[in-house]
Write a structure and sequence with these properties.
The chain contains ten helices and 13 strands. By secondary structure, the protein is an alpha+beta fold.
């Protein structure tokens, strides 16, 4: 079979149409031959009636009467007749030999006035078609036979076959054209889907139109779902790479400080730092496991325990129930909490408060500090990658952006508000385990 669906359907259609036309031609030729043969048999039966009218009840043949009537019935020189009775045989010239001539049956009742009945078909040498009937008489049966050349049947069939073949060829041509049009129109939606997939690959569109025939609708739905999954996976990859870049910035910065007396090495470290941030912020390689279940309190206490050592003088108040858990990977949760607590401790004057509670199917985590806070009109800016409102610190502007990305990947959200008494309050809504 060809690889093209168009070629396969066309080949199957042509083969089935050709087979149907051949069968139709054979059937029509057979029906035509049957009708022509029946017409010939009626003419031969008429000759048998004439022959029967020349035979009396005693089986004698009236030759004079026979000559007058048979001469008018013969269709040509090849037509023949014969009468075989008690007095011998009377026949036309050169009567052909026949195969399977019936043996005389027992004497039946006298024939009806309508003529001989129960005529039998015989075939003879040289393509002869014959009809024979047996008449009972007082002196014994009389066998009547009328024969005509098979050419009488074949000639009109051959004459009708040429117009028949021309008509079938015209029908085949029309059906072929109809099939080509049908295939072109029928496969047009498939070509449209192909073009739209190519446009998606080229970036000119982000989904396929779902106004499709019923047979293509499931395919378009699955393709759109696949495109959406790929887009989500790409976003996940970019976000994870940004997390990695953020995690690497501190060791690279420390290495740069250690090598600050070596300008060449410091320049190489700076180049490494820029390359990491350039490439890893464009893709996130880690896959999100939404089936994870991580206890919240141990993760908060583990990271909160390291904050006083890094940010001396900051007091952390942690109020998290031991029963709370979030549907997040442990590493992603550590990344999220590390960014939030480090951010809060860096800007706090004296204290950071961590609270968590269960609300429906979500866990609400709130981290508030008593620092300067962020004006309401600037809070939307800090969630953008690389945006820093405080250039005096040691941040790179990725912390809150990574937190917002991680929360969104797990179906959560981040909200920035003013803390009671001043400062910043970060409210995280995370999926409950």
């Amino acid at each position: 079979m060809p690889r093209s669906l168009y070629a396969r359907m066309l080949a199957i259609a042509i083969a089935s149409t050709t087979l149907a036309l051949v069968i139709a031609g054979v059937v029509i030729a057979g029906v035509l031959g049957r009708f022509v043969t029946e017409g010939l048999d009626r003419r031969l039966d008429a000759t048998l009636l004439v022959l029967a009218s020349a035979v009396d009840r005693d089986g004698r043949v009236d030759r004079a009467r026979l000559g007058e009537r048979v001469a008018a019935l013969e269709g040509g020189p090849a037509w023949r007749w014969r009468i075989v009775g008690p007095d011998g045989a009377v026949a036309s010239a050169d009567f052909p030999p026949l195969h399977g001539a019936p043996s005389p049956p027992p004497p039946p009742p006298p024939p009806s006035p309508g003529g001989p009945g129960g005529a039998q078909v015989l075939e003879g040498a040289g393509g002869v078609h014959a009809r024979t009937v047996t008449l009972p008489t007082r002196r014994g049966p009389v066998v009547l036979t009328a024969a005509a050349p098979r050419e009488v049947v074949q000639r009109p069939i051959r004459g009708a076959l040429l117009p028949l073949l021309v008509a079938l060829a015209a029908v085949a041509l029309l059906l072929t054209v109809a099939m080509l049009v049908q295939l072109r129109v029928g496969l047009r939606p498939l070509r449209r889907v192909r073009d739209q997939v190519a446009a998606m690959r080229a970036g000119r569109r982000d989904r396929i139109d779902e106004d499709q025939p019923a047979e293509l609708l499931p395919l378009t739905i699955e393709l759109n779902a696949l495109a959406a999954d790929n887009a989500a996976a790409l976003a996940t990859a970019r976000a994870s790479a940004a997390n990695l870049a953020h995690a690497l910035k501190t060791p690279v910065a420390t290495l740069a400080l250690d090598l600050r007396d070596q300008p060449r090495a410091a320049a190489l470290v700076g180049r490494i730092d820029r390359t990491i941030r350039h490439h890893l912020t464009r893709a996130r390689a880690a896959a999100i496991d939404r089936r994870s279940a991580t206890p919240l309190r141990p993760a908060v206490e583990g990271i909160a325990g390291a904050i006083p050592a890094l940010r001396s003088g900051r007091l952390l108040e942690v109020s998290v129930s031991t029963e709370l858990g979030v549907a997040m990977d442990a590493q992603d949760l550590d990344e999220l909490l590390g960014n939030l607590l480090d951010n809060a401790a860096r800007h706090a004057r004296s204290r950071v408060a961590v609270r968590a509670s269960r609300e429906g199917r979500s866990v609400v985590l709130t981290i508030a500090d008593d620092g300067p806070g962020i004006p309401a009109d600037e809070r939307a800016l800090v969630a953008r990658a690389g945006t820093r409102l405080d250039e005096a610190g040691d941040g790179h502007g990725f912390g809150l952006w990574i937190v917002a990305e991680l929360a969104a990947l797990y179906g959560g959200a981040m909200q920035l508000d003013e803390a009671p008494g001043g400062g910043l309050s970060v409210r995280m809504v995370l999926p409950a385990a």
